[in-house]
Amino acid sequence: MTRRELAHWARQPAQVLVALVFPVMLLLMFGYLIGGGRGVDGEYLDFLVPGMFALTMVFGLEGTMLAVTQDLDKGVIDRFRSMPMADGAVLVGRSAADMLQSALGLAVLTAVAYVLGWRAHGTFGAFLGALGLLLLLRFAMLWIGILLALVAGKPEMVQAVQILVWPVGFLSNALAAPQSMPDWLGTVVEWNPLSQTATAVRDLFGAPGAETGHVWAAVAWPLALLAVFFPLAVRKFGALDE
């Protein structure tokens, strides 16, 4: 199933390229346009870049959702389900391919951030740990996207469901500190799983003034989401013909 998805990359390289370029465009836009040109400021980059890493782990789910709904709409899923394989195999293959693309996108975004002047100040082990937290969040979000795609069922519904992703992404501390927000909004932002990952990643990257002690939450939140949405997605997949 994973090889099938990778074969789609070879036939449709433009989609892969767009997925790699989009996070870079966001970083440049928020660093140099919306950020008022502060992207050249090292201190601002220390705050912005880890937040952008976390934000891009949430964005891009529409590609996963679109692929799943297209397979449903064309009857491909029905053919797979008639074969002797576990119900989760199709979905795990889809998520594995998406994780490879996410890891590649994270590598490209990291290289661009280094070109812009951003640097990780922590140890190499902490750097790898930060990347691991980011990919863990991505893996959890993928299963939310897969479940939503199975519920939507049609490619035309993806855009409507996709709208839900943007509030989750921007209602976080990826781009602004909760302390600068109204108290009630800051509380909501701090409880966002994306905020926990962004804060933990800033700490592991050694960003000056970064909050500490959030690594456990950055691990617990994605695991909790996986514990809920992974079995729900597999169960929904197994009940598609009911």
Can you walk through the features of this model?
This protein is an all-alpha fold and 242 residues long. The protein has one domain. The protein is 76% helix and 0% strand. The protein has helices at 2-11, 13-33, 42-58, 61-74, 76-81, 87-116, 124-152, 158-162, 165-170, 183-191, 193-204, 215-238. The model has no long low-confidence stretch (mean pLDDT 85).
Compact summary:
This protein has 12 helices and no strands. With 242 residues, the protein is mostly helical.
Rounded to the nearest angstrom, the distance between the terminal CA atoms is 24 Å
The amount of beta strand, in percent, is under 5%
Rg is 18 Å
SSE ordering: HHHHHHHHHHHH
The number of distinct helices, counting runs of at least 4 residues, comes to 12
Largest sheet: none
Whole-number total of structural domains: 1
Shape: globular
Portion in helices: over 70%
Poorly predicted segments: none
Number of strands: 0
Structural class given helices, strands, pairing? mainly alpha
How would you state the average pLDDT, rounded? 85
Protein name: ABC transporter permease
Main location: membrane
GO molecular function, one term: ABC-type transporter activity
GO cellular component, one term: ATP-binding cassette (ABC) transporter complex
